[in-house]
Specification:
Elements (H helix, E strand, L loop, with lengths): L1 H39 L17 E7 L6 H9 L8 E8 L5 H8 L4 E6 L4 H11 L4 E5 L3 E3 L3 H7 L6 E11 L9 H16 L10 E5 L13 H11 L3 E13 L4 H22 L8 H14 L1 H14 L4 H19 L5 H29 L19
Parallel strand pairs: 1-2, 1-4, 2-3, 6-8
Antiparallel strand pairs: 4-7, 5-8, 6-7
Helix pairs in contact: 1-6, 1-9, 1-10, 7-8, 8-12, 11-12
């Protein structure tokens, strides 16, 4: 029994963090082979359709709480988008800000920039209010500390021409406050690659909160206590049987938290929100579709990975009297000790230590997030994580 638990736990962790990608790549290769065969046996035209002629009216929605450090630059960045200005409005929802956030919006005095202020109620309630006030048939959700590339909105709109596409997600590039690659750079690139392959299968598992476009008709009001709004809003598109697409050419830039404590708080909050989202998204787990397969593989297995890792270690300790398992236990303990005790550095060893630390911190945050969710301790209101203004997107 202990050996079965050990190998099954090891297989599940390996599949969640690596095997699933192999499956996606294999599915993509088979789909490309079939598409090429069909094209060669027909007179089809593989050229992409032309650009959009009638650009839809877009409302940019920004929920803001004490964002005076970056809000002016955010508004100027959005106004500079390469999109017809008469088809664009910006709504800033101030969630009871106590700094100069409200004043910055009022000082700009632009006809297509509006402020919506109210006492603090949390981001979900702010978004509900903003959508009710929005004029656009398309809604661009973005954050105050996210800088958009000039062509990001055009690219997102172009990919939503088909009526079956309910939402489009851009690619978020994360940088440190100093402008360098962030601590989660390799992992983030891996996640973006997963998004690309999932999108090709019509099973994109959520969007980046800093840059995603939604049809107004796809919006459903959020519960006031919703924690991870971007994930829930975009997964609802799949729940409704519509397509959610990933547009890697639509680039936005966002800075990570200025300190590790801020990042830990963010990860725990997201983890608690992931478990909370199951109260609405659970039907996706039982549909006979690739979406359900992706939800189990990409999301649920990772959410329960901390528990699987505990089982893996406990089973390994039980089997440690055998030479093979003693060796494997030594590798496990070395991995965790390296994550806890050794400093990150350059070279192969430094990268391994860096990966170990990030892996352990990510799963520790997931476990703590579950505890907070189960005990109802994760607040729906959010705190800024001390991020200074972000550099403009290239």
């Amino acid at each position: 029994m202990a050996a079965a638990l050990f190998w099954s736990s090891l297989a599940l962790v390996a599949y969640a963090y690596g095997g699933y990608m192999v499956v996606l790549v294999g599915c993509d290769a088979v789909a490309a082979l079939r598409a090429n065969a069909r094209w060669l046996s027909s007179d089809g035209d593989r050229r992409r359709a032309g650009s959009v002629d009638d650009w839809p009216f877009v409302t940019v929605l920004v929920a803001a709480y004490n964002e005076e450090a970056c809000l002016k630059e955010k508004i100027e960045n959005t106004l500079a988008l390469d999109y017809p200005p008469d088809r664009l409005e910006i709504l800033i929802g101030s969630d009871g800000s106590t700094d100069r956030t409200d004043g910055i919006v009022e000082e700009l005095a632009r006809p297509n920039v509006r402020l919506s202020r109210a006492p603090r109620v949390g981001k979900a309630a702010v978004l509900n209010r903003l959508v009710r006030e929005a004029k656009g048939t398309r809604l661009l959700f973005t954050d105050a500390n996210t800088r958009l590339a000039p062509d990001v909105l055009r690219r997102l709109v172009e990919r939503m021409r088909g009526g079956e596409v309910g939402g489009a997600c851009g690619r978020l590039r994360l940088v440190t406050p100093s402008g360098g690659a962030p601590a989660e750079g390799l992992y983030w690139r891996y996640e973006n690659l997963l998004k690309l392959y999932e999108s090709r299968r019509g099973a994109l598992m959520g969007a980046n909160g800093g840059v995603y476009l939604l049809r107004r008709s796809e919006w459903r009001e959020l519960q006031p206590d919703t924690i991870v709004d971007d994930f829930l809003v975009t997964m609802r598109v799949l729940l409704a049987g519509r397509k959610l697409t990933y547009v890697p050419e639509a680039v936005a830039v966002e800075e990570t938290a200025a300190d590790l404590q801020g990042e830990r708080v963010r990860r725990v909050r997201i983890a608690a929100g992931n478990f909370q989202s199951l109260r609405e998204l659970w039907p996706l787990l039982f549909r006979p579709s690739f979406v359900s397969f992706a939800f189990w593989s990409h999301k649920l297995l990772r959410w329960v990975a901390p528990g699987i890792l505990v089982v893996l270690l406990a089973a390994n300790v039980t089997l440690a009297a055998r030479p093979l398992y003693a060796c494997l236990l030594g590798l496990q303990l070395a991995f965790y000790l390296a994550a806890l005790l050794l400093p990150s550095g350059k070279g192969a060893v430094g990268r391994i230590v860096h990966f170990a630390r990030y892996f352990v911190e990510m799963n520790a945050a997931m476990m703590l997030g579950f505890v907070k969710f189960a005990r109802g301790r994760q607040a729906s209101t959010w705190q800024r994580t001390g991020r200074p203004p972000t550099r403009r997107a290239a």
